[in-house]
């Protein structure tokens, strides 16, 4: 059986939302920054067991420094969120707590995966220190560039949505 679920990626400008999707859907990466205007929609079917698969409809929204500025029509009918920040740019996770609170209040019961991307740009020591302070808020550290943990992120969310 195949069911269809809508996933929305949120986060600041340039944190790597489009790159994570491209890595997951096409297994490609580009250093070029092509800013997303409005929304791009991608699709990928993921097998979650021998008999079940899930068709992920993935919405790549333009970057926002504040979730409240996102057009509410883009968020209608969302089954799961991926909130992405850039480990190498603290401004992209300064308001992480309040952004997550906003999602919890407005979309209760919708799963949210929090992702620290661009892991390849920070040292292991930085990541260790970072995890000690903010680790409890973060579900995955990823790199769209190397592909690290990208499949794990989408498959974990897909399984939760079934
Ligand atoms: N080193 C490194 N660079 C990355 C990674 N992910 C994305 N980038 C680079 O970061 C820049 C922005 O990536 P995008 O995927 O366009 O970011 P976005 O969040 O979709 O940006 P908006 O369209 O503004 O919302 C590009 O130059 C990418 O090549 C990563 O994991 N590591």
From TrEMBL:
<dbReference type="InterPro" id="IPR027417">
    <property type="entry name" value="P-loop_NTPase"/>
</dbReference>
<protein>
    <submittedName>
        <fullName>GTP-binding protein</fullName>
    </submittedName>
</protein>
<keyword id="KW-0547">Nucleotide-binding</keyword>
<dbReference type="GO" id="GO:0003924">
    <property type="term" value="F:GTPase activity"/>
</dbReference>
<dbReference type="GO" id="GO:0005525">
    <property type="term" value="F:GTP binding"/>
</dbReference>
<dbReference type="Pfam" id="PF00071">
    <property type="entry name" value="Ras"/>
</dbReference>
<dbReference type="InterPro" id="IPR001806">
    <property type="entry name" value="Small_GTPase"/>
</dbReference>
<dbReference type="InterPro" id="IPR005225">
    <property type="entry name" value="Small_GTP-bd"/>
</dbReference>
